[in-house]
Fold:
Amino acid sequence: MIQLNEIDKFIESRFQRVFILKGINLTISEGEFITLMGPSGAGKSTLLNILGLLDSDYEGSYLYGTQNIRKMRDKDLSKLHKSEFGYIFQAYHLIDELTVYENIETPLLYRNVSSAERKSIIADLLDRFNMVAKKDLFPAQLSGGQQQLVGIARAIAGRPRVLLADEPTGNLHSAQAKEIMEVFQELHKEGTTIIQATHARENADYGTRLINLLDGRIERDEII
Amino acid sequence: MWKNYLKISYRNLKKRKLYTGINLLGLTIAIVGFLSISLFIHHEWNYDRMYSGAERIYKLNQEFAANGETQLVGSTPSSLIPVLIDEFPEVETGTLVFDLGIFSSVVVDGGQGSQEEKSFAFVDENFFRVFDFELLVGDGAKVLDEPNQLVLTESTAKRYFGFAQAAFQNALKIDGKEYLVTGVMEDFPSNSHLDFDFLASFKTHRHGKNPEWSPSNYYSYVKLKEGSNRAEFETKLPQMVEKYLGDIQEEYGFKTSFLTQPVTEIHLGDQSLSSIKPGSDVRYLYIFGVVAILLIAIGVINYVNLATAEATERNKEVGLRKVMGAERVQLFGQFVSESMILSFLATGLSILCVFMLGSRLSDLVGFQLKTDLLLTPGGILFLIFLVLIIGILAGFYPSLLLAGMQPIKALGNKVKTGGTAWVRKSLVVFQFFVSTGLLIATFVVKSQLNFMQDVNLGYEKEHLIALNYTNSMEGSVEVAKQEMIRSGAAVSASIASDMPVFIKAGYKVFPGGDFQGEFMITGYSVDQDLSKTIGLELLAGVDLNRNDLNRSQAYEEGVDFPVLINESALKATGWSAEEAIGKRVNFGGSMARIKGVVKNFYFNSLHYEVNPLAVFLDPNQANVFLVKLPEGDVQSNLNKLKATWEGIWPDRPFTFQFVDQAYEQQYQSEQRSGLIFGVFSGIVVLIACMGLFGLVSYVALRRTREISIRKVLGATQGDVLTALSADFLKLLGISALLAVGFGIWFTDSWLSEFANQAEVGVIPYLLAILIVLVLAFGTIAYRSWKVYSLNPSETLKND
Structure:
């Protein structure tokens, strides 16, 4: 599904290149649940950003299915980005000015989903995450775990095939983290491809494959 | 989608109160100014467009040509209109207006004492066919068909009869003659160049019964038939002139031609043409138009500046939305909708303000502003357009900037503002350039206006009053003068053709006597006490006295008459003052002997140089009775004068005007323009300072941590102020420089309109820069003090 070849990402400094990613070769098949691990600065977030088409400033080739990402026009990229990817952040990154309902609605608006369809999708999601009663609250009125649930609901509202999560449980205590990981597991069972970056080894147990990054290289790649 | 945009925009605006407040207030003030000026310009622009078929109505002006010189005048002979109606098939109809007010006032007796009225005109029976004003009572087709008929305006009718209908078929005695009120019309609109209280049938007048080709005292208007061609009509006029005036032209060696002027162009057209109402200089409209646009620009710039300064705070939101799939266009739409909402709210508030301030604004511009225009379909369309334009102008750049951010960088808050900083800086420079420039312009205008008020005119206009005088009073003039002086109410008195403020009569010096050249000269008909009364200074020769012959007597007897000439006339002759005394010149066809030379005094607008002038005795030409009051209690002196006056001329109302006020009225339009200009410049400065306040607030906010650290390290309040203000002061310096450049250009071009200019100097420049600096610095100082007074332990804790 995804094939990365010889991905380099570096920052040009005055005397030398500082590599953030170096020679990454990675093939991801549909339905995998991959965990990226490694110390801070290993390049986990950078790799996620490249996978999620948020960063185009790198070298190497990226095939998504049969499409060559490196050669696509902005418009097509944007289309692909909208239809295929969902994102979840460590800091939730909900829009403070919007209610729970509106936060989940936003990606649907950008996908020009009709009003009736939006309503039914959001109703399902609220129901699934037990947040019906909270739909009119603003993010500041929710606990961290609840905010992340909204974040997940928002990420999957557009029915992406790939879910990218950058430290999804980093800001949560263990009980909440467990809940989030169970949701991921469920989504995985339903067929969503998930790629998460994390510091916590226990989160990797929910996945199917563990990749260790160190200093911008893949150090170890194992199936669990 | 749009519902969503609006909702989010609304919440954003609500959340950021300072930002919204400054933008809303600034835009509102700017739009109020813009709308007021627009209404003003609309009013001036639509002068005389309210008559049906206004585009086919033309005023006829007359051009005289003799000896290679031409003179265009606004008045025509009484025969013109009847001839045009009879002989020109393309003329649908035409009318003649004789503005009696130019020459004298009338005394109107409505049964309860007599009153002096100035706004009186004779018009012919076609008046209402050309100018279709609405008649409240009476039939427009025949109200003025017969002699001694009268149409009153509604407010005049109210004045004399209590209400409009009561006037109908009632009589008024005017100058002793009885007139029947056959109609009452609506008051003349403020933007019609016609403006009278009384319209009497022209058939009452001598020339109404028997039209003649001289004198040219009448305004003529024709309405051409639909589809007829103005140029074609004009080319046929010379044949008519030849037919009727050919002989006279040949005899006196001049040429006359008639030219058409669209009625809609009278108000803003050639201001040297006499007209019923003073017109206006179209350039003032352009200047006001520019000010109106600048107001909006400054308000919009505030928005752009604050929105870009604030953009950094919204990086996260933009980044997130992009990650969720927002496209540039969609984000752009969202941010523009924010500026649209503000623009909409500000326009709404402005309309409220304009309605509430309506009467104040009307006082400022000098006529009733038609605020209702804003609610007509055209007005509403204009407002919608305004909302859109402002919304787009304000929102375009910031939205582009925000929508263009890279999501990763935006989420990481790693956005450099370097690229936008220079835009913001240029906009600040522009704002303060405009503010300072407008202030300089205001002060320059003001100093010229002050100059015109304080300049030594060459005569003493203080304590000088002018009463209305007619020939019938001639027998008692000397008695009245003596009585006034004896009672202590007057120092001196004289009759004269005009107030010295503006002397109208134009003559020409022809070759003859001791002088073989020729030049145009103004003539001032007076009596022997004029020099004393208005305080003229004699440079050579002797003053006129009562034993001198007056011009009419001399003409009858075929002898020379004595004149005083001014320095300009002296210069035209080339003689020295001493040489000139006793010289004979041909003054307008009769011989004059120069008896004295007076120092130049301003008898015309200061727009012009002092022209040659001759002062001579001629009581027949007198229209005013000038009285110099002694220093001291003016009111008691006026009372004494009144008693004397009413004792001698019981049938003449005691109506007077102070000459210094009449002088100032000449510059009313300049005064008013100066005032309007000043008010709006002030507003521009105010809005610009509000913008600066907002901008400094953001900078201060962003630098709170830095300032706290500085404070911990021992920075004084002064240091903080310097840190915050250094950048802005640099910008202010640049704008001041630019403004000085503009000021020099403006001073040069504006003052070139005046032959007599004030010494402007550097004061306006310094003052303008100082004001802007003080306001701007005050704004910054206030902000820096606020930040400085924060407790560092609070502000640093947040990290």
Q: What stands out?
A: The interface with chain A takes residues 1, 4, 7-8, 11-12, 15, 316-317, 319-321, 323-327, 330, 407-408, 411 of chain B (CB under 8 Å). DSSP finds 26 helices and 24 strands in chain B. The first strand of chain B starts at residue 57 and ends at 66. The first helix of chain B runs from residue 2 to 15.
